[in-house]
Amino acid sequence: MRSIFKVKNLTLFALLAATVFTTACTSKKATDGENTLTMSVSSEIKSLDSIALGDLYTNRAGSQIYEPLYTYHYLKRPLELIPALADGMPVMSKDGLTATIKIKKGLLFHDNEAFKDGKGREVVAEDFIYAWKRLVDPRNGSDGYWIFEGKIKGLNEWRDKVTKGEADYKTPIEGFTAIDSHTLQIKMIKPYYQLVYVLAMPYTAPTAIEAIDKYGKEYANNPVGTGPFMMKSWIRGNRLEMVRNPNWREELYPSEGTPEDQAKGFLADAGKKLPFVDKLVILEIVEDQTRWLNFMKGQIDFAGIPKDNYDTAIKDGKLSEEMTSKNIKLDIVEEPDLTYTAFNMEDPILGKNRYLRLAMGHAIDTETMIDKFYNRRAISAQSPIAPGIDGYDPNYVNPNKKFDLEKAKEYMKLAGYPDGKGLPEIEYSNTSSATSRQFVELFTQHMATIGIKIKVVTTSWPQFTEKLRKKKAQLWGIAWSGDYPDAQNFFQLLHSSSISPGPNAANYNSPEFDKLYDKALGMPPGPARTKVYLQMRDLAVKDAPWIFNTHRTTYTLDHEWVHNFKIPPISHDFVKYIRIDTAKRAEKKKDL
Amino acid sequence: MFRYLVRRVLYLIPILFGITLITFLLFHVVGGNPAAQAAGKYGNEAQIRALEIEMGLDKPLHLQYVDYLRQIVTFDFGRSWSTHQEISTMIMNGMGPSLSLTLPAFLLIIIISVSIALLLAHYRGGMLDKAVLIICLAGMSVSSLVYILYMQYWLAYKAGIFPISGWDPSWTGRWEYVALPILIFIILSIGGNVLFYRTVFLDEVLQDYVRTARAKGLGTVRILFKHVLRNALIPIITLVVLEMPLLILGSLLLESFFDIPGLGGLIYSAIQNSDFPVVKAMTFIGAGLYMIFQLISDLLYAVVDPKVQLR
Q1: Topology of B87-304 in CATH?
Q2: Got the DSSP string for A342-386?
C-alpha cells in the first residue's frame, strides 16, 4: 500500500487543529482575585428599563440598578417593609385615601452622559411622578400598569387622554402630586393598603427625564438608576456587567434578623457599609448543565439545583457528601407562590358540578407529584394563601383536598357519574414543555383511577394563554408567584372583576367572595382583615374552582467564599448584602 | 448568462412573496395574541386593546401585511416586541458570534471530510474503508445532544482543556470559547459528509479518465486532488453553497449550551415570546439567503463545468 498523503498535507491539518486547541488553552479570564460577584440567570434579560422589569430574571438584574421607595428587610422573616429611597414609611390620611411620602435628600442618579458634565443629579419627587407616568403610558407597553390601574385619582383618565393624543407628560394626574421637591402625595380612589407593597417594586423607581431624552427607546440598553450598581457593559443574551456606584447613598448592613441568623453568621457584618462587592457579573445561561458545571467549577458564586442534578446535590433533604466535602452551603426559601389546577367555571360540565370538582381534588396524590416533579422541593398547598403571607396557617388542612380515592368515588356518584359512567372526555389544555407533559401524564393516571378520561391538548404558551383569555379551555394547570406578601395578591385571581381576559381565567364568579374581597380591600393590615381573608379562603376551598397543588421551595447552593447569602423571597436587591472572600475563592477554586 | 441571471432574480420575487404570505398567515393562526403576551399576567381587555393599537395589530390583516412588505423593501424591521431592541442590531450583533462558530467548523469539515472521502474512495472495499464507514454510521446514530453533554462535561469540566461556556467579543479572545463547540460541530457533521463525498468520489474514480491518468503515470495524490476532485465539484458545490445560509443562521444547540450570543436562539425565543417582528425578519432573511446561495450555486456550475451553459 502506497502512502498517498505526504508530510506537508498532514502538516496543514495539524496546524489547523493546533490553532484551535492552543487558543482554547490560553488567556483564562483572571477575575478570581477581583471583588466580583458572578451569578447567573436561566433566561434572557429582556430590558433594563425600569418599567419593563416584569419577569423574574429581568427584575433580578434591574433591581441592582434601580431602587424604589421601599424594600424588604434582608434578614427578617416574615418579610418586613423598610424605606429605601423614602425617608420613613408613608403617612396615611384617616380615611386611608391619601398617602404622603417623604424622599431622602441628597440621593443621586448614576453618573451618565445624559446629565450635565456627566454627573448624576439629585433625585426629586417629580422623577417618581415621571416614572409612574411612563409606566402608565400605553405607548410604552409596560406590563406593570396594573399596580396603579383603577386605584389612583385621575390616572385612568390621563391614560385614556394620552392614548387619544389629548394629554402629555406635562398634563398632571390628580392622584400624583409633588408637594415640594422631596415630598410626594398619592391620592387614591378607594383605600389601597397594598400601595406600600407596589411602591417596593422596581417598576416604581424614579426615572431621570434627561436619560429618556438622550436615549429614547435605547434606554432599555442604557439604564440610569440610583442603585448600588450601574451598568458597565451588556452583551445581550450572554453577559451583563455592573460596577459599584460611587455616589450611592449610605446604607449599612442590618443589625437585626431572625434568631438563626446569629448562629449562621449572617449578622457578622452588622453596621458595615454596603455594597460589599465592587463588580457584579450576571451570566445569561439557559442550559441547566452549563449553569451547573460553571457553579461546580466555581465560575458562578451561587446557583439553583437543576432537576437532573438534584440527587447529586441533595440526599434525604440535606446536602450530599459531595457538596459538604466542597464546603458548599444550602439556602432554602419557601416561595410565596401557588401551583394549581383550574376549572373553567363557565364550562357546562366542570363549572356546574361541584361534586365532580371535589372528586377530582380527592383523586390527586399531591405527595407523588411533589416526589416526581419537584424532588420534594415543594409543600402541599391547602389553600390560595402561600407561606410567609398573613393568613397562612401551616396546620390548616383543606377538607376537600386530601388524597382519598374512596371519597373521590363517592363524590363521583353524587356528581351523577359513578365510576365515570356517562361523563364525557375532559379536555386538559397543556403547554409543550417536557415538565408540563410529564405532569399531565400523572394527572391523567390519577383521574383514570376514578373513571375520568382526560384528553390532553398541547399548544405553545401564546396559544395556551389565548385559550384562557377567550374562555376556551376546560381544565389546565398553572402557577402564580406572589408580587407582594399579601393574600390579596392571590385572592384577586378569584374576583369577578378580573375574569377572562383578566387573570381570573377560571372565571370564578361568587358574589359572596367578591363582597368579602371588597371589604378586605378597605381594611388596614391586622387581625380583622386576616379574619376576612380566612373567610375568603374557606369559600374558595368550598367552591373549589381550583385544585390547590403546591407551594414551591427554592434550593440555592453557594460556595464557601460567599457570605451573608440569604436571598429573600419576592425582593431581588440582595446583591449589595453579599460579601465575597476573594482570597479564599482564589485558593479554593484551584481544587474544584 | 446575463439574461439567465435576470430571469432567476425575477423568479425570486414571487417566491419571496409567497414566503412572506405564508409566514404572515401562519403567525396569525398559531402565534397567539402578542398584545395579550405583552400585557402580562394582569392584562385586561382595555390594556390588551391599547397594546394592539400600539403594535399595529388593530389594523385589518391586509394592511398589516402591507406594512410587513414595506418593512422588507426598506429593510427596516423595527424593534423587537420582547426586548425592544432594533431588529437590525440584534441580527448584526448575533451574526458575528454565529459565524465565528460555524464558519471555521464548516471549512474544517470540508477539508477533513473531503480528504477522508478521497482516501476511502482510493482504498474502497478495504479494511480502512469498512472501518471508517462503520465509525461514521455509528457516530451519526448518536444524538447530537449526547455529544454536547458529554464533551462539555469531560473536556471542559473534568479535563479543563476548554472553558465550560462563555464569550469574548474581541477577535483574539473569542476562539477560546468557540474551540470546543467547533470540535463538536465537526464531529457531529463529519460522518454524513464523509459518506456523501465518498459516494461522489466513487462515481468518479471508476471513470475512464482516471484509468487514463494512471496509465500516463500520474501519482495518486495528483489524480485524486487534481482530476477526481475537480470533476466531483458540482455535487460538492451544491452541498457546500446550500449550507452557507445555515452558517449565518447559527446553531441553536451549540450556542445555547456554550452560551454564545449568536443567531441560533433568536428565532426560537422570538416564537416563544410571540415576537412577530423578529420571526418575520429572520424568516425572510433565511429564505432570502437560501435563494441567493441557490442562485450562486447554479452560477458556479457553469464556472466549474464547461458543459453547463446558463441560458
Answers
A1: MetI-like fold (1.10.3720)
A2: EE-TTSTTTTT-HHHHHHHHHH--HHHHHHHHHTT-EEE--SSPP
Instruction: Find which of B27, B30, B42 to mutate to test the A interface (most A CBs within 10 Å of its CB).
Output: B42
A316 reaches B (C-beta below 8 A): no
What is the percent of chain B where pLDDT is above 90?
A: 38
How many Cβ pairs within 8 Å bridge chains A and B?
Answer: 179
DSSP state of A561: T
CA distance A509 to A507: 6
What CA dihedral angle connects A373, A379, A382 and A384, to 10 degrees? -80
Q: Is the CB of A10 inside 8 Å of chain B's CB atoms?
A: no
- Rounded to a whole number, what is the distance in angstroms from the first to the last CA of chain B? 6
Chain A, residues 247-306, CB within 8 A of chain B, namely 283-287, 289-290, 293-294, 296-297, 299
Q: Which residues of B touch A145 (CB under 8 A)?
A: 42, 47
Rounded Cα distance between B8 and B251, Å, is 29
Q: What is the reported pLDDT for A29?
A: 53
> Parallel, antiparallel, or unpaired: how do β-strands A337-343 and A329-334 relate?
unpaired
Q: Per-10-residue mean pLDDT for chain A, 592 residues long? A: 45 49 47 86 93 92 98 94 97 94 98 96 98 93 90 95 91 97 97 95 97 96 97 94 96 94 93 97 95 96 93 91 95 93 96 96 94 90 94 94 95 96 96 82 95 93 86 94 94 93 93 96 93 97 97 95 93 96 92 84
Contact of A64 with A227, CB cutoff 8 Å? yes
What's the distance, CA B171 to chain centroid?
22
User: Who's near B155: CB < 8 A, 6+ residues apart?
Assistant: B161, B162, B180, B183
Contacting residues of A for B175, CB less than 8 Å apart = 19-20, 23-24
User: Which residues of chain A does B90 touch, with a Cβ-Cβ cutoff of 8 Å?
Assistant: 236
- Whether residue A465 and residue B34 make contact (CB cut-off 8 A), yes or no, is no
Cell of B24: 404572515
**Domain-wise residue ranges, chain B:** 87-304
CA B301 to chain centre: 21
Contact A43, A23 (CB under 8 A): no
Nearest CA in chain B to A48: B83
Q: Which is it for strands A426-431 and A454-459: parallel, antiparallel or unpaired? A: parallel
* Chain A contact present for B105, CB below 8 A: no
Listed residue (A384, A347, A346) closest to A549, CA to CA: A384
| Chain A residues within an 8 Å CB radius of B166 | 29, 238-239, 283
CB B92 within 8 A of CB B86: no
Strand partners, A337: A481
Helices A7-24, B87-122: crossing angle, 10 deg rounding = 150
**Predicted local distance difference test score (pLDDT) of residue B53:** 84
CB spacing of A138 vs B82 below 8 angstroms: no
For residues A155 and A148, the answer to whether their CB atoms sit within 8 Å is yes
- DSSP result, A269-313: TTTPBSP--SEEEEEE---HHHHHHHHHTTSSSEEE--GGGHHHH
A169: which DSSP letter? T
Closest Cα in chain A to B177: A24
**A138/B50 touch (CB, cutoff 8 Å), yes or no:** yes
Q: B145 near B152, Cβ under 8 Å? A: no
Which residue in this structure is represented by grid cell 437532573? A308
Q: What is the pTM of this model?
A: 0.89
Strand partners, A101: A184
Nearest to A4 among B90, B119, B179 (CB): B119
Q: Which residues of B touch A286 (CB under 8 A)?
A: 256, 265
